[in-house]
Amino acid sequence: MADWWDADGKRHRKQFASSGAAREHEHRETALAHAERAIREMKLAGKKGGVKRSPARVADRGTIDPAKGKLGVMIPGMGAVATTFVAGVEAIRQGIAKPIGSLTQMGTVRLGKRTDGRSPKIKEFVPLAGLDDLVFTGWDIFEDNMYEAASNAGVLDQRLLDQLKPFLSTITPRPAVFDHNYVKKIDGPNVKKGKSKMDLAEQVRADMRDFKKTSGASRLITMWCGSTESYIEPTAAHQTIKSFEKALRENDENIAPSMIYAYASLMEGVPFANGAPNLTVDLPVMLELSRKNEAPICGKDFKTGQTLIKTVLAPMFKARLLGLSGWYSTNILGNRDGEVLDDPGSFKTKEESKLGVLDHILQPALYPELYGNIFHKVRINYYPPRGDNKEGWDNIDIFGWLGYPMQIKVDFLCRDSILAAPIVLDLVLLVDLAKRCSELKGLGIQEWLSFYFKSPMTAPGLYPEHDLFIQLMKLKNTLRHLKGEELITHLGLEYYD
Ligand SMILES: NC(=O)c1ccc[n+]([C@@H]2O[C@H](COP(=O)([O-])OP(=O)(O)OC[C@H]3O[C@@H](n4cnc5c(N)ncnc54)[C@H](O)[C@@H]3O)[C@@H](O)[C@H]2O)c1
User: Fold this and answer.
1) How far apart are CA 13 and CA 58, in angstroms?
2) What is the bridge-based pairing of β-strands 323-333 and 297-298?
3) Fewer CB within a 10 Å sphere, N or C end of the chain?
4) Average predicted confidence (pLDDT) for the chain
5) What residues pair up with 224 in beta bridges, in sequence order?
6) Mutate which of 81, 261, 419 for ligand 1 pocket (most atoms within 8 A of beta carbon)
7) Model's pTM, two decimal places?
């Protein structure tokens, strides 16, 4: 037993492991009481006019339609990421698991001043579709249903999958639009046949209409979780709707399968999010279609393992003006994605997406002495024994005061699809929100969703924002803006008036 004194000088007795623990308890209680008192006083002063109040809330920006009815999620590519996402949603619906890693499910958004104590959950602040309202379909070149595909992917525990089998085995893939030339390492039997690429696009559009009808969904969204396609650059065919449709009819080789899904989706007025580094919707024609048909687009390449770490560490170097001379990233993974990326064409697409990050964050043109001469290398090695459990190593050579060198080593033993699944869930819900917002649906690119991507899409001529915390602020400020709440700038001078 020991004595401790509270902020008002009152003595209390309590059991403590040591006298140090008693002192620590006393400090904590006193600090808490002081903080609470300060908040009470500020609120009181605010009421009396002593502290400037936040400006009156402005009216909602535009309108947001309610999330009424079912939301149909259509996924080209029912592999590791897609099955981990769908199985996860079902496990959460059944109360077996929690949506860890999902901003829309677990995240909050602060409103007003720090002293206001208003931090609702994001899903309660903006009208998002509920998990119970999600229905799913997909396309794949393999015929496995979602239970079989998830079992093959080997990400989730087989006992969990067996519990979810009655649900997962009802989702069977529709025949895919596929061209082996774009993904060299795989081939499968469940593929559509058509006279032309336009014909294939028509078939995908028919699938979408069929799904909407049979599932009873009131809204749809397409979420690309298919393999990474070979690297290509935009050509004349990708410039306008007219040139693209002509190219579709003429089977132009510059139109990759993912673009056919994207075209079909946007023609149906359905939003399209791209989880792979393929160009897909990052093309003038798709922007034109997206704006014309009010079907939001975003991408590309989910920001999960190594790049997630990169976009947290690099802003820290820049914030502290620490120089960078080299960053060597290598990783091993043994899932099908790893096998696909073993092909130089697909790897080049991924490499482009991963390499751009540092330049944009560190701005070598503004800081030539610190970042003008960086050696940046990214390697991905296919190593089957690891399956989906990737290991990523980073060796970072930095320099500080007077140019003295230092090193940082990161060894991230991550699970690729476990990191990607909550991103898919958030994107599905937030892109659907964008489609229901009068202010967002006609914008085309949803830059406020950059938070989720390695290579975020932006308006032509605008460099992307890669810093994770700027991206998060942008996302939350967009939600505040949509609801007519004051934006948070972190200036905070009003607390000291
Ligand atoms: N898991 C991550 O952390 C992560 C991060 C960023 C990006 N990605 C990207 O997400 C995508 C999916 O990753 P994954 O691990 O699930 O890969 P995966 O290989 O397990 O699944 C991809 C699936 O897409 C199918 N597919 C390929 N082309 C198709 C087409 N034209 N139409 C329909 N289906 C097609 C394949 O058959 C396969 O089943 C990949 O492009 C990957 O690069 C994943």
Assistant:
1) 51
2) unpaired
3) N
4) 89
5) 274
6) 81
7) 0.86
| pLDDT higher at 7 or 180 | 180
Using the predicted structure, report yes or no on whether residue 138 has a pLDDT greater than 70: yes
pLDDT digits (tens, 9 = 90+) for 22-43: 555 555 565 455 445 544 544 4
pLDDT confidence band for 59 (50 / 70 / 90): very low
Q: Classify 465 as helix, strand or coil.
A: coil
259 Cβ contact list (under 8 Å, min separation 6): 238, 279, 280, 283, 286
Contact 99, 121 (CB under 8 A): no
Contact status, residue 65 vs residue 436, Cβ threshold 8 Å: yes
Rounded mean pLDDT of 62-91? 96
Which residues line ligand 1 at a C-beta cut-off of 6 Å?
76-82, 139-142, 153, 176-178, 183, 186, 188, 225-228, 257, 275-276, 301-302, 304, 335-337, 340, 416-417, 419-420
Q: Give the mutation target among 177, 337, 347 for probing the ligand 1 site: most ligand atoms within 8 A of CB.
A: 337
26 or 286: whose pLDDT is higher?
Answer: 286
Structure tokens at 62: 């535009």
Residue with CA at minimum distance from ligand 1 atom 40: 227
Measured from the Cα of 257, ligand 1's closest atom is 31
| Residue located nearest, by CA, to atom 32 of ligand 1 | 176
pLDDT of residue 389: 85
